[in-house]
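USER:
I would value a second opinion on how I read folds in token form. Give me a protein, with the fold worked out from its sequence. Write it directly below this note and I will take it from there.

ASSISTANT:
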Amino acid sequence: MPVEAKPLFRPDVLRPYVDDFTLPPHVEQFRPKLEHWAELIRTERLNNFRESEILPSFLHDFFETLLGYAGPASGGTRFTISVEKHVEIDGKFADAVLGDFNGKNRYVVAVEGKGPKDPLDRPYAGRKMSAVDQGYRYAINLPCDRIIVTSTRETRLYHKGSDQHTYERFDTFNLYEDEAALRRFVFLLYCTLVVLRRGSR
């Protein structure tokens, strides 16, 4: 019998913060991209793509363009997202790591991404571990406290100190249709970015 998922944050505590949160100005420019991803999902065209074909675009659009994490080719002075390096488990590397890579590396979030058909909670396509298991393994070995797992259809935020049934879930299609869902997504994942920008320890 499946175990019911629990939220990482108490909804009654989180809600007032999200309600008071104002989306950054650049989010308005991102809305055509949100519409594009929603259309890929609505028409089921997303299922035509393998992980290797669609995941890099998703990470770029949502983590760099929407959330503002900066890769090495961004042209900025800070470097806060790194892909396919830093930690290896069973011959596989984390798809991305969020952190501070400007001198001494500081890891904040391990990101494990899969294709749109991946169920995330159980092994798929011949793998021995689920995407969630992989994400926790990466976080333990980096080490870092937070984990993001995504299938491009949905994105989940975990904390390493919590069990694997406790997470915040973000539905990609809803980010386009539901303003409150978009505000919650940006609030929770943008707060991590603010910490990285300030260089807080």
About this structure: The longest strand covers residues 106-113.
